[in-house]
Amino acid sequence: MISPEPGEFLDLLTAEEIDDLRAAGRTRGWERGATVMNEGETADWVLVLTSGRVKVSSHTESGTEVVLAIRGPGALLGDMSALDGHPRSGTVTALEPVEGIVVGDFPGFLNRHGRVAVLLMRLIVARLRDADRKRVEYGAYDTTGRVATRLVELAERYGEPVDGGVRVALPLSQDELAGWTGASREAVSKALRTLRDRGLIETGRLRVVVHDLEELRRHAR
């Protein structure tokens, strides 16, 4: 049974559309750390995640990794390249073992399902709005505010209730968090220490426990 994240591509499809998507593709899996898609490659296939989480990233000319997004079950990946024929704009890396449906002729699938094409347009618009919001954050928030914002997002999307808070069960390193907030690793470490000192979070290797989500939201704002 697939449990897509609310609002993701797969969550918007009917059971019949999902069956047709499966018929148009094939199932494939990747181990944690594997590269699913490479920035700059030209390919016409897309991936719809059915389990596991990935990061979408790009690299600057100096080699610095910039994390563009974290995607989970139900997400559609590679659609822009499949639609316009241009090279992929980001690298997709498995943060944990992932599995998904690989669809080779995605434009053909959309031609057969006009409703899904309209849904995809809305999904792309939502991504653009999210990108605009993040650009505003980079200009308006300090590093602590940006880190708090990302932790709130992770807690809301992937949090698991535990005694004393919400545990973020996602293998995201401080380097990756730095790449996601547009800050240095040192600045992110300082921001995490500030949030720990205020009793809002507890950190460990590849995990974060949020003790006061509402107060963390206030820091994010």
Automatic annotation (TrEMBL):
Short name of one Pfam family: cNMP_binding
Keyword Transcription: yes
Entry keywords, A to Z: DNA-binding, Transcription, Transcription regulation
Highest rank taxon of the organism: Bacteria
Name recorded for this polypeptide: Crp/Fnr family transcriptional regulator
Ranges where the HTH crp-type domain occurs: 141-214
Any single GO CC term annotated in Swiss-Prot or TrEMBL for this entry: cytosol
KW Nucleotide-binding (keyword) present: no
Gene Ontology terms for molecular function: DNA binding; DNA-binding transcription factor activity
Domain Cyclic nucleotide-binding, first and last residues per copy: 9-99
Signal peptide: none
Gene: fnr_2
Organism: Planotetraspora silvatica
